[in-house]
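Hi support team,

I submitted a single chain yesterday and got back a structure, but I'm not sure I'm reading the token output correctly. Could someone confirm the output below corresponds to the sequence I sent? I've pasted both exactly as they appear in my results page.

Thanks,
R.
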Amino acid sequence: MVTIRCLAYNHEPYIRQCLEGFVMQKTNFRFEAIVHDDASTDGTAAIIREYAKKYPDIIKPIFETENQYSKKDGSLRRIMDAHTHGKYVAICEGDDYWIDPLKLQKQVDFLEKHPECVYSCHRYYIYNELTKEKYLSSNKYFDNSPSDTEFIFDLAYPFSCDWVTKTLTCLFKKEVYENCVIGNFKYRRDVHLVYYILSAGKGVCHSFVGGVYRKNSGGIYGSLSDIDQLKTNYKVFAEFYSMAKDPFLKKLVVSNYAQILVKERKIRIPHNLLECELLFIHMPPVVIRKIFRKLCFFVNKK
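Hi R., thanks for writing in. Yes, this is the structure output for that exact sequence:
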């Protein structure tokens, strides 16, 4: 019924807690955890082998001798797809973990009863490895409606209102996932998965706290400054829009670019048609005149 996809690389301090979250699940259906060790150089693989031996019906390991993620050729996704057999797919990276033994049961039960929904997520804790603090993730809906047990949302909600999900919280229909084209993107992120899944139906966010997202110094995006995070988001959505041509994504590109301009407080020369549209349609005339003067300066200099 459910295939859990777990990617691990040098997660020796964390992987045991992650695997415990899998094997403690209590369900009335069969589930499996495909645990992929991407040629770790620490003791991650040994711990996975220990759990695969102890729980052979649940833990299905894959051990690589060559790192697949670094190839950037889609091989990692192809490997995981070939071993994904369930009607539903759940995800949990090797450094995150689940804390609710009924997590999968609750999510599957809801999706089975609500065919209009194709994606399920829930609340989660954030654990800061540096400060050792654990706190509940913010959620605009439940912060305002604490007595509700779930709410249904559409594609626009996580992108324009509140990003309510992390990979460790999600469970979605495999048949919808198979139509995703995530592997074609240079700047591949969780936003691609969520976008394509929710393009096929509704999502549901549950109020129960089902897991812990580990925030550590190894996270590249989290270590970036605010402006560099905006620039990264801009690259992601600009590439996304160039391929999907969805007006909704175009709004996200424009929004990110506008925020960059505000943050940097300086004129940027447009590099593509989208940036030209933003500057010449959405910017005040005084800004446009400054850009023209700057362009003329560079032309005259040549």
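A quick pointer for reading it: The beta strands are 2-8, 31-37, 59-63, 88-91, 97-98, 117-128, 133-136, 150-153, 171-173, 202-215. Let us know if anything else looks off.

Best,
Support desk
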